[in-house]
Design goal:
The complex is a heterodimer of chains A (510) and B (351).
Chain A (H helix, E strand, L loop, with lengths): L1 H27 L6 H5 L5 H11 L6 H13 L17 H36 L4 H14 L3 H21 L5 H19 L3 H24 L9 H20 L5 H24 L6 H22 L4 H35 L19 H39 L2 H8 L4 H13 L3 H14 L2 H6 L5 H11 L2 H29 L8
Chain B lengths: L6 H4 L2 H9 L4 H11 L1 H21 L1 E4 L4 E4 L26 H4 L19 H37 L1 H15 L3 H11 L5 H9 L4 H14 L3 H8 L4 H38 L10 H8 L7 H29 L9 H15 L1
Antiparallel strand pairs in B: 1-2
Classes of the chains: A mainly alpha (510), B mainly alpha (351).
Chain lengths: 510, 351
């Protein structure tokens, strides 16, 4: 195993050397960095050309200049690491260290959301194979897969931001939209839950009526301007989450699990009132993180103590339930700051189309959190739509493959109920092939998204790369390439290792 | 009859499929399955229609920008014509019948409208679509050729050849296609879209090569390969006559997926300014040029986008149909028609 990893790392270094050399020279022949200056009529153009040539060693031919660049990179061995300077004279390392967090913030949310949503819908679609729901999901997935991201991004800007902000000026939902949306929601839930005709009719009626009621309330109470959940709604949602998660993970017939989860749900209103005075403007991100850890610990602890025979499964369930419920409380606190943000910072137009944050925003964690959200929502949706489709297709195919296996037949034959067969036996195994794609996607997180960043004017890695390539700024291009190809190769290795750990039939050491 | 083989009586899906495919070769079964995939067939028809329409409407232009060889199409305007702008240059296409909106159905002078300087947008979109389709096919062909050959050689011979070729593949994977686009744009940009696609294809074969290699690794251990070798076949014959036909399913399916991503790649590169460059047009470039004027000239934005989505969607569905057709383990839904065919087959075999 260790020998395998060492061998792979050795190959990785060699590939990295080869690929950086190739890319360096390709970029070098893609244009002349001094072209603008050569055509310039400025009196100091000649001086600038000489200055740049000296600073960037442009008089050295590119294949040789590569080794000068490599010397700077290898400098980390003797504590003299540098990625050189860009055409604007600023060190590349500084630019990258500013851009990486921006890119990660942009891509990671979209990646995680598309994994969760894509796998969930893919699973449901596989369980309802050849139903109308399955066909619609397949069609939608193909449609999303065929969308050029720049086109989606411009459409989102037009309708998601400009249109929605206009709508917020007088947020009344019109009856035709309300009815149409409710019917679509009804049809969706009908497809998800399935069943015989009577059950379908009940599902449809209930989902349509609920959606219509919620939309009417949102429209009538001005909820979009002054949103809040309040203790009552939070408690109801917490109970719902507890029932739903327990049903999926251990089944409601497991009395201990149900009771622990319900206890978590019923503790939620108590914590709601305890947390209100603590959630001040001095609250910060570190405390939020501690709160998340504490919540999970409480849930898991309660599960371990009261879980009985299946204490690990119960603990897991309780931890998830506790985490969801705590998130609801935090979400409510964010909503309390929405009105202030809406009126005083966004001036009535909250959804942003450019940039990653409001300039010079001096605010507490709640306001700046909302600010990040309003900037993230459009690019995240654009990225999500497209990667969602991949996960949808893969998880569907993977689950169908697993459901055809003999061990699933065995599980059914020994009398396990459908929930246990699907969630414990099939679902987990269907995730194994997905780890490879997930690893690739996470490797892409750090590289940002060139087109999305450009359309929404985010200053991330993609933007640096795009601009550097346009100006033939070799050091800029190479800085980004070094980081992205390194993370791609490392995540590739990690994917292989995880795969062999999850599926013992695959040996990495040959 | 001792055993009742009537599929309807025992409701066994396997027996229905067996009756249906009785007496057919593997190739016939695959073709038949593909022809029965409704979404794929519709997509194929739409794609062929789009290709014919696009290439006949705009005419075909070969050669370089300086010395073009043109075959005029049936559409009255060319991309170089600059007719008078009427109004904002709104589309004159009206497909809504008169009894709904009161105006007649018509195609008009400029069905897709005119751009800001007055060029006929229909001819621009046709030219752009030609470019995108060309890129798609060229990348597909180049990548299929390289990927199949390298994957086959790597998987068949193994040992150091495999190792070297796979490390070379890893190397090529790390090269971002945007850099390839930039190099081609500067160095041979005036040679047109064909060379851009050719060079992009040189870097697009990696996924296919890996798949073909994996397929060859498992197929070369099979008995029919040993049999061929004992019969005296040389390596070349074994690779091309014995193993490759068995790996065709994998190749065809992944090529179709490669082509749908190729069209998105070209439009994306052109959008960023590293693919097809002005004065030539491509669908991505048209969107990029007109994205800021969405509120005033929305049609400049809709047409190229819808065309890209339609082409990519068609290719994806065709790929899906091919995958279903080639996958022997694929469990299909047994339709009424299947039952009828099975019944007929049974009746024939009894008679």
């Amino acid at each position: 195993m260790v020998a395998y990893i060492v061998r792979r790392l050795g190959a990785l270094v060699l590939i990295l050397l080869g690929s950086t050399f190739l890319i360096y020279n390709l970029t070098a022949i893609s244009g002349d960095p001094l072209e603008d200056l050569r055509l310039s009529t400025e009196p100091n153009a000649q001086y600038l050309i000489e200055q740049y040539t000296k600073d960037l060693q442009l008089d050295v031919p590119p294949p040789v200049r590569y080794f000068l660049w490599l010397e700077g990179v290898l400098g980390f061995l003797w504590g003299d690491f540098t990625l050189g300077i860009g055409l604007d004279g600023a060190p590349i390392l500084t630019a990258l260290s500013l851009a990486i967090p921006v890119s990660i913030r942009l891509v990671i949310v979209a990646t995680i959301l598309s994994i969760i949503i894509g796998i969930t819908i893919g699973i449901v679609s596989a369980l309802r194979q050849y139903s109308r729901f399955d066909y619609s999901v397949t069609f939608t997935a193909f449609l999303f897969y065929s969308l050029p991201i720049f086109w989606v991004a411009v459409l989102l800007k037009q309708f998601g931001a400009i249109g929605f902000n206009d709508f917020l000026a007088s947020p009344t939902i019109t009856p035709p939209f309300l009815i149409g949306f409710s019917v679509v929601a009804g049809i969706f839930w009908m497809g998800v839950l399935g069943g015989d005709k009577k059950r379908l009719a009940i599902t449809f009626a209930a989902a349509t009526a609920t959606t219509a009621a919620v939309l009417a309330y949102i429209s009538g109470s001005g909820w979009l301007i002054e949103p809040s959940l309040g203790p009552v709604v939070i408690t109801l949602m917490a109970v719902g989450a507890a029932l739903g998660i327990t049903q999926l993970s251990t089944g409601l017939s497991n009395r201990r699990s149900t009771m622990v989860s319900m206890a978590m749900a019923l503790l939620t209103p108590v914590f709601y009132f305890i947390m209100q005075p603590i959630f001040t403007s001095e609250f910060d991100g570190g405390m939020l993180f501690l709160l998340a850890i504490a919540t999970i610990a409480v849930g898991a602890g309660a599960g371990l103590i009261f879980g009985g025979d299946e204490r690990r499964a119960v603990a897991r369930t309780a931890a998830i339930v506790a985490f969801i419920n705590a998130s609801l409380i935090v979400l409510d606190r964010y909503m309390q700051s929405w009105n202030e943000y809406f009126n005083e910072i966004a001036f009535g137009r909250p959804i942003k189309t450019v940039g990653d944050s409001t300039l010079d925003l001096q605010a507490d964690i709640w306001i700046s959190g909302i600010d990040t959200f309003t900037h993230l929502i459009l690019p995240t949706s654009a990225l999500m739509l497209i990667s969602l489709a991949g996960y949808l297709r893969f998880s569907r195919a993977s689950l169908l493959e697993v459901l055809n296996q003999d061990y699933i037949r065995t599980a059914r034959a020994k009398g396990l109920n459908e929930r246990t067969v699907v969630m414990r036996h099939a679902f987990r195994n269907s995730l194994i092939p997905l780890t490879t794609i997930m690893a690739f996607d996470f490797a892409g997180v750090i590289g940002g998204a060139i087109i999305t960043e450009q359309v929404f004017a985010w200053r991330g890695m993609g933007t640096i790369f795009n601009q550097a390539l346009g100006r033939v700024d070799l050091n800029g291009v190479m800085g980004v390439v070094l980081i992205t190809s390194m993370s791609a190769l490392i995540f590739n290795l990690i994917a292989d290792l995880i795969y062999s750990a999850l599926d013992p039939r695959i040996r990495v050491t040959k | 009859m001792a055993k009742d083989l009537n599929p309807d009586a025992i409701g066994k899906e396997e027996s229905i499929e067996q009756l249906e495919t009785a007496g057919l070769s593997q190739g016939q079964i695959i073709v038949r399955r593909f022809l029965r995939h409704r979404a794929a067939m519709i997509s194929l028809a739409v794609l062929i229609f789009i290709i014919l329409f696009v290439f006949t409407a705009g005419g075909i232009q070969l050669g370089t920008e300086e010395q073009p060889i043109r075959f005029p199409g049936w559409w009255q305007w060319d991309i170089r014509d600059i007719p008078e702008i009427s109004g904002l240059g709104e589309p004159t296409l009206d497909l809504i019948p008169p009894f709904i909106d009161g105006t007649g159905m018509q195609v008009g002078q400029h069905p897709f409208g005119q751009d800001a300087i007055g060029r006929d947008y229909f001819s621009l979109v046709m030219r752009g679509a030609q470019q995108s389709i060309t890129v798609m096919f060229v990348i597909g062909i180049v990548a299929t050729f390289i990927g199949t050959v390298l994957g086959a050689v790597s998987g068949f011979f193994g040992k150091w050849i495999d190792n070297a070729l796979m490390r070379f593949t890893d190397l090529i994977i790390t090269v971002p296609s945007i850099i390839v686009g930039a190099v081609i744009g500067i160095q041979v940009g005036n040679l047109g879209v064909f060379f851009l696609a050719l060079f992009l294809g040189l870097f697009a074969w990696t996924g296919l090569a890996r798949l073909v290699r994996a397929e060859f690794l498992s197929l070369r251990e099979r008995e029919f390969v040993d049999a061929a070798r004992v019969a005296g076949a040389d390596n070349r014959r074994i690779i091309f006559k014995h193993i490759l036909p068995n790996a065709m399913g994998t190749v065809i399916v992944s090529v179709s997926l490669l082509m749908s991503s190729a069209i998105l790649l070209e439009t994306g590169l052109s959008f960023l300014g590293f693919g097809v460059v002005a004065p030539d047009v491509s669908l991505g470039l048209l969107i990029s040029q007109n994205q800021d004027s969405f509120t005033i000239y929305p049609w400049l934005f809709w047409w190229p986008g819808l065309l890209i989505v339609t082409i990519a969607l068609c290719i994806n569905f065709i790929g899906d149909g091919l995958r279903d057709a080639f996958d022997p383990r694929q469990k299909r839904k047994i339709t009424k028609k299947d039952r009828e065919i099975a019944k007929a087959a049974k009746a024939k075999s009894v008679a």
